């Protein structure tokens, strides 16, 4: 369960302080709630600044520097004869320039701010090393993605946006398989969890659901942060359970069960396949919109796809960034709905309503998450519903249940998707 900061859903206005209930504060003291809200405001400001910086940087490069840099690269004997090599070099230069421009904000948001609120355990040297690894990985992916995209444009001409959507859908599926075995270990120490008292209940929760789990693993989040997290990562034969050591050390087994049941719920409710289908449609819509914008940019002369210029790379990056920003809230709204459906599944599957509520209260306090921030924050940036909303779901069940923790459903009832509305 990758839990991001959550905020009020768009259809529920924030209440005044005097009207707050225990669900709104997630059991926080007044000081804890104030600190979580302060952290949320700083984090939101950094996110907005980062988005604005991305757009401003790419717009400036596309407008003032792209042609000149491409001309300089074309003058180099080992790049001038190959559009592909020149494109790769330009992608590396644009990405490196972005690192230089964005690094002060990244240092403030990821290091200074996290230390100010007592969330980070990284020294500045370890933070820098992690940041460099992220930048290098981003550079490799940028070269692969944009060289591949330009080759599709050069060879498929007007149909590039359809072919590109399919190719990048497949590329995303491959990355999903490689993420837990090749990418995540670059940043975290991961080891198999052999304690059957912890793993057996989790394996049992997955039994009969059709989900194949390669293993249960401990991920060393405590080397970087005090925050707790868990996830069901990978696709196919690489699918595995990853439990943060911060979660293992601070949460009761019953709480970890409901968190894992939430992840199983995504599988039972077919959210992974649905999200991939949505991703395919979103990619097609994104590329099609970019194609329309490129035609407008050509001034009515039409786009010469076979000779699509290398110096248009920053423009393509800018257009994709802008379209992604526009589509982001739609994706987030769908994701929040599915997260609530998975919450409902976890409650129905385990019957552990008190454990569910206590787990999210702990997450709110440990991660300093504002349980009920401004709805506009959620609308724009958050893929998970507010913790207050998730607690309300559990509290409704507790209020209507004959016991604090009801019996677990078994057999077909355990694996059948809940028909209860998510919202």
Put the structure in a nutshell:
The protein has helices at 22-25, 30-74, 83-116, 124-156, 160-183, 196-206, 245-250, 253-268, 271-297, 313-350, 353-367, 375-381, 387-400, 411-415; strands at 190-192, 216-219, 230-233, 240-244. It has 423 residues and is mainly alpha-helical. It has one domain (17-415).
What string gives the helices and strands in order? Answer: HHHHHEHEEEHHHHHHHH
Rg over CA atoms, rounded to whole Å, is 23 Å
Query: What can be said about the biggest beta sheet?
Result: 4 strands, mixed
**Helix/strand/pairing category:** mainly alpha
Instruction: Kindly report how far apart the N and C termini lie.
Output: 19 Å
Which residues form runs of ≥5 with pLDDT under 50? 1-23, 402-423
Number of strands: 4
The helix tally amounts to: 14
Instruction: Please tell me what the overall shape is.
Output: globular
Quote the average pLDDT: 87
Strand fraction band? under 5%
Tell me what the structure shows:
Strand 3 and strand 4 (240-244) form a beta hairpin. The chain is globular and about 65 Å long. The chain has one domain (17-415). It has a four-stranded mixed β-sheet with strand order 1-2-4-3. Helix 10 crosses helix 12 and helix 11 (353-367) packs antiparallel against helix 13. The protein is mainly α and 423 residues long. It has 14 helices and four strands. It has helices spanning 22-25, 30-74, 83-116, 124-156, 160-183, 196-206, 245-250, 253-268, 271-297, 313-350, 353-367, 375-381, 387-400, 411-415; strands spanning 190-192, 216-219, 230-233, 240-244. Mean pLDDT is 87; it is low at 1-23 and 402-423.
């Amino acid at each position: 369960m990758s839990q991001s900061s959550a905020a009020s859903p768009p259809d529920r206005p924030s209440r005044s302080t005097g009207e707050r209930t225990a669900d709104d504060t997630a059991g926080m003291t007044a000081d804890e709630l104030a600190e979580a809200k302060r952290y949320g405001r700083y984090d939101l400001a950094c996110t907005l600044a980062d988005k604005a910086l991305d757009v401003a940087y790419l717009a400036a490069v596309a407008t003032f520097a792209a042609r000149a840099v491409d001309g300089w690269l074309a003058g180099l004997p080992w790049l001038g004869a190959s559009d592909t090599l020149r494109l790769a070099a330009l992608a590396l230069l644009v990405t490196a320039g972005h690192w230089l421009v964005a690094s002060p904000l990244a240092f403030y948001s990821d290091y200074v701010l996290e230390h100010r609120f007592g969330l980070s355990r990284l020294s500045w040297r370890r933070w820098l090393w992690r940041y460099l690894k992220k930048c290098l990985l981003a550079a490799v992916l940028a070269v692969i993605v944009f060289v591949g995209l330009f080759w599709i444009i050069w060879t498929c001409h007007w149909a590039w946006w359809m072919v590109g959507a399919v190719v990048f859908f497949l590329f995303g599926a491959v990355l999903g398989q490689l993420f837990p075995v090749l990418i995540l270990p670059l940043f975290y120490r991961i080891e198999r969890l052999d304690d059957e008292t912890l793993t057996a209940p989790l394996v049992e929760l997955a039994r009969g659901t059709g989900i194949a789990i390669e293993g249960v693993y401990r991920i060393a989040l405590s080397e970087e942060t005090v925050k707790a997290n868990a996830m069901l990562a990978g696709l196919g034969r690489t699918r595995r359970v990853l439990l943060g050591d911060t979660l293992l050390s601070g949460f009761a087994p019953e709480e970890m069960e409901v968190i894992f049941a939430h992840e199983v719920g995504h599988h039972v409710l077919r959210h992974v396949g649905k999200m991939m289908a949505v991703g395919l449609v979103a990619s097609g819509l994104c590329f099609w919109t970019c194609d329309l914008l490129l035609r407008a940019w050509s001034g009515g002369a039409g786009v010469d796809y076979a000779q699509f210029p290398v110096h248009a790379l920053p423009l393509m990056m800018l257009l994709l960034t802008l379209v992604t920003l526009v589509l982001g809230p739609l994706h987030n709204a769908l994701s929040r709905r599915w997260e609530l459906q998975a919450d409902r599944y976890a409650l129905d599957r385990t019957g552990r309503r008190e454990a569910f509520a206590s787990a999210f209260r702990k997450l709110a306090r440990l991660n300093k998450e504002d349980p009920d921030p401004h709805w506009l924050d959620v609308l724009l940036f958050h893929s998970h519903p507010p913790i207050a909303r998730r607690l309300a779901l559990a509290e409704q069940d507790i209020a209507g249940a004959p016991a604090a923790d009801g019996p677990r459903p078994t057999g077909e009832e355990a694996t059948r998707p809940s028909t209860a509305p998510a919202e």
